[in-house]
Inverse folding.
């Protein structure tokens, strides 16, 4: 969106009631150049809570997903300020193969057995 109204600012966010006049307009976005290409910077979306469903976890919060649960759950677990994982099976630390872990326990705050 480099060179557009989104980057330059002024995009209508709120109109005055009953008119076409803009009451609140967007601010200009920060731009940066990487490898000769221009980019518009945008803040990441962060939720207060992330609720994810996992197949297996250990008591330290390391998660393994099964099937299509791996599509977005890993990204959501990392994006939430507080991640709550509902899992089918909880095992002791060391029982999960480190190569199979999709989300490390540093991102998980609560583990609940389904």
């Amino acid at each position: 969106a480099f060179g557009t109204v989104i980057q330059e600012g002024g995009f209508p966010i709120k109109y005055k009631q009953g008119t076409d006049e803009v009451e609140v307009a967007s601010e200009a976005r920060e731009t940066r150049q990487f490898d000769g290409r221009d980019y518009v910077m945008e803040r990441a979306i962060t939720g207060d809570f992330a609720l994810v469903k996992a197949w297996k976890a250990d008591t330290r919060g390391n998660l393994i997903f099964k099937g299509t649960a791996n599509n977005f759950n890993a990204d959501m677990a990392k994006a939430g300020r507080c991640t709550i994982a509902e899992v089918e099976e909880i095992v002791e630390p060391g029982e999960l193969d480190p190569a199979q872990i999709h989300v490390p326990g540093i991102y998980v705050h609560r583990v609940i057995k389904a």
Summary: The radius of gyration is 21 Å. Residues 73-79 form the longest helix (7 residues).
